[in-house]
UniProtKB/TrEMBL annotation:
Residue span(s) of domain Formamidopyrimidine-DNA glycosylase catalytic: 2-115
Primary enzyme class: hydrolase
The organism of origin for this protein: bioreactor metagenome
Catalytic activity: 2'-deoxyribonucleotide-(2'-deoxyribose 5'-phosphate)-2'-deoxyribonucleotide-DNA = a 3'-end 2'-deoxyribonucleotide-(2,3-dehydro-2,3-deoxyribose 5'-phosphate)-DNA + a 5'-end 5'-phospho-2'-deoxyribonucleoside-DNA + H(+); Hydrolysis of DNA containing ring-opened 7-methylguanine residues, releasing 2,6-diamino-4-hydroxy-5-(N-methyl)formamidopyrimidine
GO BP, sorted A to Z: base-excision repair
SMART domains recorded: Fapy_DNA_glyco (SM00898), H2TH (SM01232)
UniProt-recorded name of the protein: Formamidopyrimidine-DNA glycosylase
Keyword line: DNA damage, DNA repair, DNA-binding, Glycosidase, Hydrolase, Lyase, Metal-binding, Multifunctional enzyme, Zinc, Zinc-finger
Entry-linked InterPro entries: DNA_glyclase_Znf_dom_DNA_BS, FPG_cat, FPG_Glyclase, FPG_N, H2TH_FPG, Ribosomal_uS13-like_H2TH, Znf_DNA_glyclase/AP_lyase, Znf_FPG/IleRS
Length: 274
DNA sequence: ACAGGAACCTGATAGC
DNA sequence: TGCTATCAGGTTCCTG
């Protein structure tokens, strides 16, 4: 469900409330969500630990704990982290609860149960391949125009699949890729190596702009995305193509088309994007 | 290298 | 109303 802007907002909404708190109790209602180590070990090594930091890498959240331990969470499609008082009615899809030393809790809720959680020491993070092999993120120093240019040049496949590949760029997902391509005027089925110099320039700035705007608007709430306090974002009101099938393009009025590319629903303007 | 499909899962919604 | 099909902000693995 969430892409990098949504995960960033979740991080910001939880950071101040969690850092410094101690995890007093962990209830795991759905053990198979724990991918490392076992659910029992996860519970044993996190219980009683103080949370020392909360950071994000791509779509992963990393809860730093004392003793150089870390809890890693990937929300996949429908995962949520919700902070509340411990006696609040639990979410309908609550799967894991972290009870804190101040009488509050953070629950991991997930309707499709595709999310993944890990607990390990910092020097074991290499075990999470999606994390350790992740490419540079938009808005970061490592994500340069030249990196994008060279990467596109080397790829024979279509550009949408490449932009979705987290090894190439960390954090982009289906919505923000469609939006980036729309602003840059590039058809999602274009071969990556066919993109021209001036198009790469536009794409580079559109990727950064779309991610920056997404964060500024508190994320995109299309269905069930919420931040750590249960609040919706508003970037859905700023989307150019995603979810706008048959609606007029905001630039030229041509109806937005929806097709399948790289196995994902893909929206674009057939007039503006070539 | 790359495309396509399946798998992991469940819920909301559209269509009949 | 009730059944069936389709789709979903993600990632990984397998086959051709």
């Amino acid at each position: 469900m969430p892409e990098m802007p949504e995960v960033e907002i979740i991080k910001r909404s939880l950071q101040d409330r969690l850092v410094g708190r101690t995890i007093q109790q962990v209830d795991i209602m759905l053990p198979r969500l724990i991918k490392w180590p076992t659910a029992d070990r996860f519970q044993a090594i996190t219980t009683g630990k103080k949370i020392t930091s909360l950071t994000r890498r791509g779509k992963y959240l990393l809860f730093g704990l004392e003793d150089d331990l870390v809890i890693v969470v990937h929300l996949r499609m429908t995962g949520k982290l919700l902070y509340s008082s411990a006696n609040t009615q639990q979410d309908r899809f609550s799967r894991i609860k972290f009870y804190l030393d101040n009488g509050d809790m953070m629950q991991y809720a997930d309707s499709r149960t595709l999310g993944t959680l890990y607990a390990m020491s910092l020097d074991e993070l290499w075990r999470i391949t999606g994390l350790s092999s992740m490419g540079p993120e938009p808005l970061s120093e490592d994500f340069t125009l030249n990196y994008l240019k060279e990467g596109l040049k080397k790829h024979k496949g279509n550009i949408k699949a490449l932009l979705l590949n987290q090894r190439f760029i960390g954090g982009l997902g289906n919505i923000y890729v469609d939006e980036s391509l729309a602003i840059a005027g590039i058809h999602p089925e274009r071969k990556a190596d066919s993109v021209t110099e001036s198009e790469v320039d536009k794409l580079f700035s559109s990727i950064n702009a779309v991610i920056r705007d997404g964060i500024e608007h508190g994320g995109t709430t299309f269905r069930d995305y919420r931040d750590g306090n249960g609040h919706s974002g508003s970037h859905q009101f700023h989307l150019r193509v995603y979810g706008r099938k048959l609606l007029p393009c905001l630039i030229c009025g041509t109806p937005i088309v929806k097709i399948e590319v790289a196995g994902r629903g893909t929206h674009y303007c057939p007039n503006c994007q070539r």
